[in-house]
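[Solved] Which block belongs to which protein?

Original post:
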Amino acid sequence: MNRRTILHTLMAVAIAAALPSFAFAAVDVAGVKFDDTVTVGGQQLKLNGAGLRTKVIFKVYAAGLYLTDKKSTVPDVLAVPGPRRVAITMLREVSSEEFGKAFTDGLNANTGKDERNKILPQIMKFGEVFAQTPVLKKGDQLSLDWTPNDGTQCYLNGKKIGELMPDLAFYNAVLRIWLGDKPVDSSLKPALLGEK
């Protein structure tokens, strides 16, 4: 082999070795990077999908959904066992009042009255979480984690906020804000379900 052939072979090997890292690179949504995997409750979760929440023409936040296994339908997402995470990065400043109202509107649009009555104490606790934080600033990271045997825990910039909410029905009701029949953003729903 001559020197040129050896060099080409080495370059091809280097490129081939680098390809898997490109295949598993983080997903970018409006400049927000979502890792392919995260750990919740000691278990590794996969990025199911990620997308952008817009209101009128404004980018509000980027959101990613993490599950133990990738799912492409709402019933499968709601039934998946194990931990889950919704990761949100704010792309503009939003008052907690505005964010809380959007949460309530989304919950009301996608759950029946009987279901809301059953999870009302947890809805109230969740409202208190937003009362503790007057403003969500651009760049703030909000995580909503479900861990079996514990419940739902909110984190703001990695710090726990609010109390644990124990009912899976509450977490699923929150997921339906984005994934329900009347999602808060019709383009975000398919993105979270991993549709290209």
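(Second protein starts here: sequence line, then its structure tokens.)
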Amino acid sequence: MSDGHHQTAVYLEDTYLTAITGHVAATGGTADSAAWVAVRENIFHPQGGGQPADRGWLGECEVAPARDAETGLVVLHPRDDQGRTLGDLAEGDVVAARVDADLRLLHAALHTAGHLIEAAGRAQGWVLAGSIHFPGQARIEFTPGETAASLAGPEDREKAADRLRTRVASAIADDLPVTAEQDDEGRRVVRLGDLHAAPCGGTHVRSLADLADVTITAVKMKKGRVRVSYTASHRPLK
């Protein structure tokens, strides 16, 4: 593959665009000869930053997006159980691409809710230590610093959970806008109104009122970290 292949991260520009007609930017193969395709107008979010990959299709072939370490492109591999390849496509070909819209909205809701819980945790004096936004296992982890002693007992942790819930509910009720911009270092920074800002390459809802069923299910201490488990979904689109 030659240098200079351009790819636009459409999934970062519009979370809610889930189908597009685009063009093949590049093709290639892995060490085991499995074909892959990269599209110029890329609507597929690859796994990364604690967010799972989109489920998607190129034409009728179900594909799995992944970031290619060599080229930096998001490339599409046919699902193993498909029995089909993308080998007939060539650079410049017109292709129809789409992602599972319901799953996209779920991932965006979980990721945005994770930022919101991070903001609520910071307000308690905690420092972000890690995050995962996968359905069924979403959690934010913090180092509690000087507040560790105040989380010693189950009742203390439940009180902390209630404080988190109050802050989260207030921000959703205020319907803070969710925006993204480039900082001076060229990083994409996602903002929840004036409440929170963090570098992030994930998909997000338009504003916090898009979030539904944001539930903090547990606050636990694990190996000196505060682990906040949660669930969230996206409100039905109007």
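Accepted answer:
You had them paired correctly. Confirming on the second one: The mean pLDDT is 91.
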